[in-house]
Amino acid sequence: MAQHPTTPGQGLTRPPRLGPGDHVVVIAPSGPIDPDRLTAGCAILRSWGLRVTVAPHVLDTHPDLGYLAGTDADRAGDLQSAWLDPDVDAVICARGGYGVHRMVDLLDWTAMAGAAPKAFIGFSDVSSLHEAFARHLGLATLYGPMAAAGCFVGDGPTADHLRRTLFDPAATTALTSPAAEALVGGRAHGVTAGGCLHVLASERGTPAARPSYAGSILVLEDVNEHPYQLDRLLTQFLRSGALDGVAGIALGSWEGCGRPERVRAVMLDRLGPLGIPVLWELGFGHCPSTLTVPLGVPALLDADAGTLTLDVPALAPRREI
Length: 321
Known about the structure:
This protein is of the alpha/beta class. The chain is 29% helix and 19% strand. Strands 6-14-13-8-9-10-11-7 form an eight-stranded mixed sheet.
């Protein structure tokens, strides 16, 4: 199967921005879904003027493994069917959890590469799908809140930032947060990549893993990992060569990972010797209020200013597609 480069200098293909009346399909590639949160999330999407369809197996639970939303084949089938449907303009995940690693290789990436580009949104466990979309489709994606996630249904700024990224992406090219500051100062330019640290670390050593994030602005966040576990994950990244040639790193939230000063110490110890800019707390990931961060888009990281600024909007005007 042909694979696309994951960090070309000009970034990956950007899908078109959305508009009123566009069709969004909600899928569940990982864990089981809270029906009430799903209803609330779909109501928010519909309030934006979108047509929303919930894929057939979203509310399933695996018959033997209750931590999965349905069987691997059904979860993969929902994603593939939505992607191949020419009437669908975007696919948004319902939640993370665990399960993408089990189903990502069941997708027919050759068939999916023949479909028109469309927006794909999710975070956490969905990091593996972001990597696969970049590798197999050469497509930029959105590391953002999911339809049945608490941060989406319970926080106005989180949903509003996703809405603006989808409908008016030129308004969301400058990303920052009140807590953003330099862990290691400097500026760097590269193509954004990354996601949830423990999910990406589990890719290392598999055929799916990219050789390294050379040339990338790597965005990393995680949840409920103790500082020593974060150390182990970052050490795996370092030893595997994943960080060879990385241009800069933007760190997001570390919710439930212990005292911030201990997490900072781990990040500085493991990432500081790379000699590249490292930005602390850009404000994305597993946090009560989260930004949507495009992946596969060229951007300037200014650690001293606390900003990540995209060269181009996350989504393209329709005329470019």
